[in-house]
Design brief:
The structure holds two protein chains of two kinds. Chain A is an alpha+beta fold. Chain A is 55% helix and 17% strand. Chain A contains 24 helices and 22 strands. Chain A is elongated and about 110 Å long. The two termini of chain A are 34 Å apart. The chains are: A alpha+beta, B alpha/beta.
Amino acid sequence: MRGLLQSWRLFRRELAAGEVRVLLAALVLAVTAVTAVGFITDRAERALALEANRLLGGDAVLRADQPIAEGPRQLAAREGLRVAETLSFPSMLRHADRFKLADLRALGPGFPLRGHYLLLADDGQSDRISRDIPEPGTLWLSRAGAEAMGARIGDQLSVGDSALTLAALVSQEPDAALDYFNVAPRAFLNLADLPATGLIQQGSRISYRLVVAGDVAAVSRFSSAIKATLGRGQRLETISDARPEIRSALERADRFLGLSALLSVVLAAIAVAMAARRHCARHLDGCAVMRCLGASQARITTIYIGEVVWLGVVGSGIGVLLGLAIQAALGSWLARVMGLAIPPAGLWPAIEGVLVGFTVLLAFAVPPILALRGVSALRVLRRDLAGAEAGAVLSTIAGLSGLAALLWLKAGSASLAFSMLAGIAITLLALGLLAAALIALLRRLRGRLRGPWRYGLANVGRRPLSSAAQISALGLGLMVILLLTLVRTDLLDRWQRALPADAPNRFIINVQSDQVQPVQQFLRDGGVDSVELYPMIRGRLIELNQQPVSGSDFAGNGERARRLAEREFNLSASSSYRSSDNRIVAGNWWPEGGPAEPEVSVEQGLASALGWKLGDHVAFDIAGRRFDARISSLREVDWESFRPNFFVVASPGALDGYAGSHITAIRLPEARPGLANDLVTRFPNLSVIDIDAVLAQVRNTANQVTMAVEYVFYFTLLAGILVLLAAVTSTQDERLQEGSVMRVLGARHWQLRMAHASEFIAIGLLAGLTAATAATVLSGVIAEQVFGLPWSANWPVAAAGALAGMSAVTISGLLATRRVLSAPPDRTLRALA
Amino acid sequence: MTDTSAEPAVAQLSADSVLVVNGLGKRVPLPDRQLTILDDVSFSIRAGEAVAIVGASGSGKSTLLGLMAGLDLPSSGTVILAGESLNALDEDGRARLRGQKVGFVFQSFQLLPSLTALENVMLPLELADAADAMTPARDILQKVGLGDRLGHYPRQLSGGEQQRVALARAFVTRPDVLFADEPTGNLDTETGAQVIDLLFELNRQQGTTLVLVTHDEKLAVRCDRSLRLSGGQLVSP
């Protein structure tokens, strides 16, 4: 207790004297950065999740296989959310004497809460927007469905026991992101008409959906509460239910946010470590004096560790408040600029900020303090006695362990944390070795150098441990900044490249085998350059390696695997594969002419989700017929190319004779905006899906996320620059003293400047080069492992980064040492005596 | 090697000895040989006595001071300070003894730069858990003529003023023994004289035993007696 009081006294006094300002500033900065980045990424992630869910027709969707009880409705009402209800199930439709299995959707009042339907206008050419549902007694049909049944507006269709009038044809649904490849006719009716149909019976395969929308915070609360009380057969529909093209863009954005937050922790750790080192170095004398004045080792340890704890409390407190303020300002600004409602952040980033502050501070400051105990009291008589440098190794080990724990916590993935930590450790080792080599070289060279260069470079060599520590910290800081720049450049490039100007904007589905040639010809005549049609056959998985399987067999592989296995697969067949967005990662593509036995190539993500391996045998049921094949290759698919891609592709000819249709993707020529309508007029059974609308939504979300990412990035960058300053400031005292002595001996301003500049250029060059190399390699690992992007070394950015790093170190170094020139040398010498 | 056995009484032992140094030696290993800094030094100092330790630079004065104050351990011989053998105490024990019985004044002042004049003087009292550190610290700073500089930091004080704060810090615990290592070494003649006057005045008022290391013969003659070191050995004055 007494020790705590004394440490508080010391902290207060040192704070008043400005002695702990550097460490406090570093800590505040670290906690602010971690907290603000944490808050912003947390909010951006929530915004992203919400945005993504809007692609599903509402802000959040609760899906169940039983009628949804009152609980969730009451909860939504309490939160002030708008609610709509839909039911969907397969059912037979009858028009005159034609029967067709359709996907029936009963829509409750208010639906859709987000987005709209596109209905075919009366002219039969253009679309009109509708935010309503069918009137009671009427029915809407998907355009292709109406064509398949030969139904016209005004016709009567039978649905169960009811007869409904066809009132509109639907071109696009608000929740199209879910599965726009489904070719079954879709019928939409008013929920009020459903009981009269008599279709709701025991055992019907019905999906009940409760769609909510409203204030973002309320939606967040609703989703969290629902998640906690999900019953059997219930789940919140998320973006993982959406098409892979949309999912993968959003997931990458999410991971980048996570990475930024992670790197801000690393930067924070470096800043605090450097400041802690200086803090301890400056307390060597005080420690010796206290020993002379009778303080025991335990007392000294208590006082100084206590001081660090107080520092942690005050610094973390200020940091969290600043972080909150910044995220509030930035959050509302972002919301205004992006027109995006950003949900409030949770408490976790604040807790995390404090946790990071304390862990880093204690890990890096305590070992040197423990080393302070070993300071000889004799230091008061002989200043040359060794200080706390002995604690450097222990400090590094403790610091890295603390950092490892934090990275693990933050990354939520051991492999990401491990590759990050391994990258840091290897960078540190490389920096240490290079620094040692440079120092040895400088020692040899110094005899040949002249003037200020000699003094400046001698400084690097004279304090090998200190120089090595400084070069390592600077290098690591630069590496982190460069890493983030490289990954961000990669990612942004990717988003822009993913949606090039000639990206397809229409999918054409349901092309029958005998229409392939005519459709190709029609499109070519219409000005579309290359038209490639792919067979698309829907099949349900029935066997794996001769064992019958169902969705529940995959429950052990996670919910997504179960749903994937339950759904119908879109199978295709091809003799060649498109290398622009497909890459074989295991096995081999079949030879020209195809293999003797049927083979399939499977998308890698699906294979790993379902636990399929190369050589496994799979069997599908295609409209009552069985299809058997061996998995002969695994493919990586770039879904963001927005071209027709399939999870399962069969060898040529393997699917011949199975019932199915063809699909293609085209970009409408600008000169022929009406081509799609002409196509449908000419081939009425085709469905043309306008993916521009879906793309626009994805693009919009990607743009919004990019902005959030950019600001998070700039903030992390700012933190990095401050780290550089902190690192340079950490040896300021020695430089001040040397500078003063040199000035006393007659050194002129430019000579001192040159001496400092040569020292910083040497340090900056070394740190910059190592950092650029390490960042380039690590960004490659991250691009491939975390983002699933192919890596190509971005040397120009790396070189520019190294150069910028060197300049930043030199400029911040010269700024930090300008006091050497301005302060009267005698006063500096006396102050530092 | 530390020798803790009772050496033949070379030093003059008396009942009122506050410091007894017996057969003290300090050797440090060099790559090729052992360097002897102090060799078989013995003497004793009575309570209230003022003793100067003089000698040329490198004669071992500061090493002797460090050993007497328990800041370092001897290679051989013993030091008995205020009735306790320093050899028998561990570092914390020696720190406790220093806190209770010893005051220091250094050539380079050794004030903590982050503490004000008043806080620097309060520090030894606070470390000894004194109930009220402020009043005696303020009183003694008044006494050394710095009553109006209590809130100033060392960097805001002149060398003479800093040394006066150091004197106040040394005397505020009313030590039995005060060790002073070249207290005027960093000061000009005039300021140095003022500081020394103050040192002797406080010493007289408190009846403290003074051990003064100096190379200044004029300063040495103000003490009751001098011990001269040469090449690490005591020689006749």
